[in-house]
Amino acid sequence: MPGSLERPRLHLSLKTLDLKIQIPPAMMGGLPRLEIWTEVTSDELKEHIDTIEESYEFFLAYAAQGVSGSGAAISGELSRYLSRADEALTAFESGIGDAAEGQDAEAVARMDQVLQRDASNTLAALRLVMAQPSISSQLIDNLNASIHFRAVLTDLFLVDEALKASATTS
Q: What DSSP state is assigned to residue 98?
């Protein structure tokens, strides 16, 4: 059918262990990424919350430095915090189910959807910043001020406190 996207075709030959993948020309530049997600555990949840909170605080300090960003290389420290925040937010795209074991399943599932959506939105903003050749204080300040970043922080604090409250009553 003209104009429609074809699916990639995979050819396996066990006899020669020959692997061939045919990619339609329309997909050449935009193959979807293959990602395997697992839900975070309670300890990972705490670690990821700490990472995102530390990154947010570092970004506040970076924003206050007045870095112009014009032609300046991205500092190694800023790059590390951006990467760590990216990893932590990516982990939340898979959900918090394992970390919320023993909680009301429906309540957790609904909050999990909110957190996944907010983490995904924040990740989009973060990756836009990371894609820049230089990063000014103003750009980082705008990232921190983003409703998405603040929403995911608030989500995480809420989940963390709910889990703490549940742990003290059980």
A: G
